[in-house]
Amino acid sequence: MWRYLIWAAVLQSLTSGEVHFEQNVEENLLTVVPCVRRLCEKYFKSERAMKGSLAIINIKPDTSLFQLNILKSFNEDPRHEMGVMVKDGRKKHQNASHVTEKAKNYLLMVSDSSELDPPINQLRRLPTWNPLAQVVVLFTSEMTPLIFEIEVRNALQKLFENSVLNSNVMVQRFGTSVLEVWTWFPYENGGCADDIVNIRLIDECEYAEIPVESVEQAENSGFVDPELEYMNGTFANSSFANQNDFSGVDEVTLTPQETVWMFREKHFFADYGPKIPKDYNNCPLKVSTPIWEPFVVGNETSIEKGLEVLMIEAITARMKLTPVYKIIEPERATARITADNITGFYADLIKRRTDVMIGGLYENPISRKLLSSTIPYYQDDLTWCVPTARHAPKWLNVFIIFNIWTWLIAIVIVFFAAGIIYCFNHVEKGYPENYTWMALQSLALSLSVYAHYWPKRFSVRLFLVGYMFYGIHWSAAYHSFLISVLTRPRFETQVATVETAIEQDFRFAGAENTLVFFDRPDSISKHIAAVYQTCPNMDDCLARLHSERTVAVAISRAHSHNSKSIGEAEIFCFARTDNIQTYSVGMMVKKDFHLLPKINDLIRRISESGLLGKWQVESDKIRIDEDLDEGGGGGDGGHGDGQIVLKVEHIEGAFILGAVGLGLATISFIVEVVYFKLKQKYKWDDTTFSNLIC
C-alpha cells in the first residue's frame, strides 16, 4: 500500500499544471538513470530496514521523462527500505509537522548550482531537516569539463554553508553516458572542515551496451547469472539489489546484435574513510564564554577552571580537538538577547566565528531559531539574592532570655516581696531599715545570693524559704539560657520573599536580559519592571550587597554561591519556590554543527559516569578553601577547634545595665548631698519622707 501511495504522490506532483513530456529526450541523459539509482543505493543508507528510512527527492521546476524515470526507479525498488517524499522548490510545502522522522537522505535535481538555493531553503524549513543526512546533488544538464568543475565546487560550497558535509555531486561527463560523482573530504590531509580545498572524483558509472560473442561467453566472463530470467528478449535479474548477484552487472539485455547492457564502474579514493571521522586532527574547537562561576572560572585574560571548562577539556581530548577560548566581555553577556549578528551576545555563533558557547547558558526563543544546543547537563535557576540579615544588637543578649511579660512579672515579684519583708520587719521591730534596703534583700533572695536578714517568727522564715526556692529556679533558668544566648548569633528578620522586599522599599537590579521575565500583567512584575536597574557587570552588582541593605539582585543561584565578588555568608537567595525561572544549562553551538551528535554522546557519557557531580564538589571545595584563605582561617576567633571566645560585645548589655545603675546611684547620691546641705542650712526637721530616703 505504501508503494502505491508514494507513486500516486509522485504522479500528482509531476502531472499537476498540465504537464506535457517532451517526446524527443536526449538519450544520453536517460542512459544515466540506472547509474543514478545504483549509486544512490550505494550512498543512501537505511538504518531501519523493517520500517524504512526517509529520503527526500527535490524535483526540478520543469517536468521531464528523465525525472519520471528517476522517481520510478526509486518507487519500484522491491525492498522498499526508504520512504520517498517528493518536493518542488517552486511551491510552498504543506504542513509536514506530522512527519517526525528526520530525513536520512536527500536527492536534489537541478540544472546547475544556481538552482540550489530554493530547494535548500525549503528543506531547511521542514521538520524533517537533517544536515547530517547523505545529500546527493544531480546536475541534469551536460557540462564541459571547465564548467562542471566550477559548478561542482559551487554546489559543494553552498551545501557546506548550510552545514552539510556528507555531500556528493553527480554530473554527466560531456558527450558521454558516463556519470561522475565528485565530493570533498572535510578532514583530508589534516584539514579542519573550514574550507573546501580539494574536490575528488570518487565514482564513475556507465550503463552501456557491450557486444559479446555469445551468451555463454557472457556467463564465462561473469556477466550473466544462471538464475536470470528471459523476458521479451531481455535477461533481467529478478532481484535488482540482491547482494549475492554477480559483480558489476544487474541487468543483461540480449539484442539481435549479440550485445548486453551492463554497468561499468570505477571507484577512487577508497581509503579516505568517512566524511566525519572519529578524531579530528587536533583541529581547533573555538569556544566563546563569559567568566561565570562555577561554569567558567578565570579573569579577563585567561581561563583557569570551571565545570564547563572541564567538560570541554574532556570532550576535546576524546575527539582529538584543541580548545581555543575567547572571553566575552560582561557587558555583552548581560545585554538584552537579540538576533544582532554584529554586537549581540550570539554574534560569534551566528556569524560562525566560533563553534561553541558556554557559561551557564539556557535556551530562549532566539537561540532556538538561530542556533543549536547540546543536551542539558545541569539545572540552575534565576532567583533573587539580598543581603543576609544583620546581627541583632548584642546589648540585648542579657535581656532576651525571657520575654517582656516574664521580666515584668519577675520585677513585680521583687518589689512585692520587698514590701512583705518590710511589713514583717516593721511588725517584729527588727532591723531599723527602710524599704530600699528591703528591696535589695528581696532582689538578693530572687537571685539566690546571700541576704542580711534574720527573721524571728516562724511564719516569716517559712515565707523566705519558699522565696529562696523561687530564687534558685529563677537563677538556674536564667543562667542556663544565658550561655546559649551569648554563644548563638542572633539576626534580624530575613527578607525572604518578593512581597516582603516590596513592602520594605527594596530596589531591584540585574542583567538587562533578565527583564524579559517581568513582562507580565501581574502587579508584582509591573512594580519590578518599573524600578528595575540594569547591571552591565553582574559581579559588581552582587558586590553592592556589601554596602546596600535594600537591594535585591536577580542572578543565577549557582553563580551567586560561587562568585568571588561576595562571600557566601553575606548573601541570601530566596527559596526555590520563589524562583524567577528554572532552566536547564547546556552549550550553545552554531546552527547544525556537524560535531553536535558526537558532543552530545560524550556529554551523556560524562553525566552517566558521575563526573559532573565530582567536578561540582571539587569546585565547591576550591571556593571554600579560597574563603578560608581570605578570612584568615575562619570565624572562630582564631581557634581551630571551634571554641567561641566571649568578647565584650557579647555581654555589653550587662555593662550597659551596670552603667545605668551607677548613673542612677550617682544622681541619687548628688540629690542626697544637696538635700543634706539644704537641711543643715535651713535647719529642716526629719520627716517620714526623709526617713524613707535616708
From TrEMBL:
Keywords: Cell membrane, Glycoprotein, Membrane, Receptor, Signal, Transmembrane, Transmembrane helix. Coiled coil: none annotated. The keyword Metal-binding does not apply. The keyword Membrane applies. The chain crosses the membrane at residues 395-423, 435-454, 460-481, 654-676. InterPro entries: Insect_Ionotropic_Sensory_Rcpt (IPR052192). Residues 1-17 form the signal peptide. This is Ionotropic glutamate receptor C-terminal domain-containing protein. It comes from Aedes albopictus. The lineage of its organism: Eukaryota, Metazoa, Ecdysozoa, Arthropoda, Hexapoda.
